[in-house]
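User: Here's a chain of 356 residues. Predict its fold as tokens.
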Amino acid sequence: MQKSDAIVITAGYLDTYSGKTAHGLIRGTERFKILGVIDHKFPGKDAGEVLDGKKRDIPIYSSIAEFVKQSPIKAEYCILGVATKGGVIPQSLSIMLHEALENNFNIVNGLHDYVSDHEDLAQLAKSKGLQIIDVRKPKKFKDLHFWSGTIDKVKCPKIAVLGTDCAMGKRTTTRFLTEAMRKAGYKAEMIYTGQTGWMQGSKYGFIFDSTLNDFISGEMEHAIVTCWDEAKPDIIFIEGQSSLRNPSGPAGSEWIVSAAADAVVLQHNPARKQYKDMEHYSKSFIPDPKDEIELIQIYGAPTVALTVNTAKMTQQDARDYAAKYQKDLGIPAILPLEDGVDQLVPLFKAMIEKSK
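Assistant: Prediction complete.
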């Protein structure tokens, strides 16, 4: 895939959960070459160092104007790298998108609020011959697929990467697992289910929360079967969304039932006690991973590993937690960001050999 040069707008949210789209792009993308991040809080710093302490040679600029003035390379795309509450484009971001168009950037937007529905921005893009890509725009009815049972033809292991809440790092772990298996010499593919997965360049997938409910199972099946038919992978990892019990948007059963997942990797953050942004709700407490694993088993899949998101934890506390749960659950419990996922490779290697 030929990469397109791009900048990413985070507008003060780079160091927050709201910047998770940017986080994924900073950690890696095959679709774009990220030339810079626009964030007024961290000008002059490296985006990777701000994100997780790892230098990635992606400079941060205070504004689009500063990027245009300072960057030796001209970018083709401007990506909206934040997830706003309700998926809306506030006035502050609208102003920045207007500036991006004035400077001849094509726009890539992953929010529910489509840039192409903002008449002033759409007209400006049209007048300058620029493209607006609203990643979350739903497919047309004629392009949707209903579940048919063809998932049965997929003979390689299918691993669902689920979580105990949204914004838990499921996509990052899914990508890490795919990369680790490729590094180990296997043909591994990732099924994306969100806008950032598409932005990172994953070939197979669909946008879960922009798909009509009746067709979610079918789109999931179609993406996996297409991947199997075209790539013939040794193993497939499927990016999860939300969680089985998140009351604002329960998800996960389709991964286990409709995609016929052979196993689950469960991502959990011990420091987060209640579902994100739902502290006001009396039933918002996140279940213990042991309880979630039991529910996943009832749905029909074994959980083969617990991956720990260490946000708002000391590394020692996170390691102590992982060690305790590995002992209690009898499955590997690891820290993906800190330690990688290579120690899970033998587990999936055995599953591949068994499937053959």
